[in-house]
Amino acid sequence: MTEAATRRAPGTPCWVSLLAGDPAAGREFYRDLFGWEYQHERGPSGPHFRALLDGREVACIRPMPKGWTCLPSWSPFLASDDADRAAETVRLYGGTVGVGPLGSAGGTGRMAVASDPAGATFGIWQEEARDGAVMDGGPGTVVWNELLTYQTSAVEKFYQAVFGLDTESPVQGGGGPEAGEPDYLTVAARGRIVGGLRGVGTALPRDRGAHWLVYVEVEDTDAVARRAAELGGSVLAPPSDSPHGRTARLADREGAPFAVITTRR
Asked: Which stretches make up the VOC domain (predicted)?
């Protein structure tokens, strides 16, 4: 199969990256929680650590650049056929580009880091040779990416324009687990649902604002939530059942939020 045939559709999450103030502490935390190991690399945007699970790339941990004052956070990198054009569209539709576009390691593609009009950070990833991280690959891998924002109508057209994503309300689509939520949209890349946009209004954390939330599959949500607290993290929302499985919203030692889920299969 050719590289072009395996390239992910624009807007599909293909990497997740933790921006950490203390990368060593982050690596230790997630190694204990998910069993990740790490490979140190140096790219155009600086040194970083690729997280590996059974030899498969599943995530990336990056140190906070000098001079940055943002909070530690997880962000998805969304696939693009043209990172430079995507970055320009970000600017045209009210977002900002903080890093890049830059050539990736080995000159095999392009990447950028941007924020949407509500301030949520995400990455743009144009890769020619590597498939990206394993997504939806079982326990220890990211299985879902969801934007928490004040109001979905403020960012819906932005993601449609930058990545060509389609959005749909579960109510309009004929129901589903989120059909009862007043402000929820699924996003699809070439007909395949790849994430969600959730408007939470005043429930949005004041200290963090709009942000993407990554969901990592685990075998036992309750046990992982307890272990996260033992490791110095915190439980932002305790384990509870949902139509998709048992979930919990957690934060690591530096306060970067993420979620875990034991999926229903």
From this structure: 12-127, 141-263
Domains of the chain by residue range? 3-127, 142-263
**Those residues with Cβ within 8 angstroms of residue 124's Cβ, 6 or more apart along the chain or in another chain:** 77, 78, 80, 83, 86, 87, 90, 100, 101, 110, 111, 112, 113, 114
**pLDDT, tens digit (0-9, with 9 covering 90-100), for 17-47:** 999 999 999 999 999 999 999 998 876 556 7
Which architecture characterizes domain 3-127 according to CATH? Roll (3.10)
**Strand ranges, E, within 4-162:** 13-20, 37-43, 46-53, 56-63, 73-79, 96-103, 109-115, 121-127, 142-149
Alpha carbons 78 and 188: distance in angstroms, whole number? 12
